Amino acid sequence: MKFYFSFIRKYAVLFHFFYFITTWLFVYNKISIKVKFDALVENLLNPNVFVIVSGLHGDEPAGNTAANYFKNLPNVKVYSNLNKTKKRRLNGKDPNRHFDTDDQNDLQDRLLSKIEELNPTLVISLHEDDEVDGVYAYCSPEIEDKVKGALMKSKIQLAVKAHGDVTDQGVISNGQQPYKGTLERALRRRNIPYCTLETPCADEEFETRAKTLISIVSDLIV
What we know:
Elements: H1 2-28, H2 30-45, E1 50-54, H3 61-68, E2 76-79, H4 106-118, E3 122-129, E4 136-139, H5 144-151, E5 161-162, E6 165-166, E7 171-172, H6 183-189, E8 194-200, H7 206-220
Helix pairs in contact: 3-7, 5-7
């Protein structure tokens, strides 16, 4: 019996010692633990990761404004204002015609590497078009219906045609676009879903174009 009580007292002391150490470590690391827990909850609640790309063409500013609207969302990664020249070309080349080409440069390399690392649910690329009179999109076939639904809420009319392609409710499918060397072709090759949005920059005010892109993107990332 004495041995039994001696055994209890001995391990009771050890228990209290470990309890004290564990409690101290928890208090000391409380903030770190909370941050990790919050990140875990966020990942569970928002399993989808979205990438928004804008400014590949420097003369298409509405996309940058729209993209930056989403930059603080935890499950959205924004790469905006990639071409800061305010011109379509960068170093004499169209940045969106040199993905997966022999003369691909650092801009394309870095962007594709970041996207591949994220392995996102969807990549949304924002552009503007000065040769059309309405908003339109081209996207992966599996999200075509969702894109059509988002476009239907647009305050800008939907384009019927764009560069020889006929749209279906504003969406181009099985057309010439996306062209060779574009980000969209590169994403399609990697089986990463994509959607490219184009607003008519010749016929609509800047604020209207930016708000239209924000509205469409909001529907695509829910």
